[in-house]
Amino acid sequence: xxxxxxxxxxxxxxxxxxxxxxxxxxxxxxxxxxxxxxxxxxxxxxxxxxxxxxxxxxxxxxxxxxxxxxxxxxxxxxxxxxxxxxxxxxxxxxxxxxxxxxxxxxxxxxxxxxxxxxxxxxxxx
Length: 125
Description:
Blueprint: H1 28-46, E1 50-51, E2 54-55, H2 61-68, H3 72-84, E3 88-91, E4 100-103, H4 108-115
Antiparallel strand pairs: 1-2, 3-4
């Protein structure tokens, strides 16, 4: 049963959803994945995970698949979609190590382009 939010309600953990994502030309699954990556990047920032001043994170594909309730191949497609949109970059982490992921925040010019378009609503696979 659901209950109303009251003055004593203790809120559960939540994720930040950057407002530019509402208009980003990516699928809904990619938006959710970006939100998870963004949250992980904030944690990496707090823990000083840096490479040449750039905050990086690792997020195994199977973990992302479990978090999103999607297949690993879907997550690979989503990562490629985020790379193509300029929202994610990955670099080889080294021998037997996961890739370092860099969450990118689009510049104001790119966001302005997105704002001129209707929200992206695509059919999910």
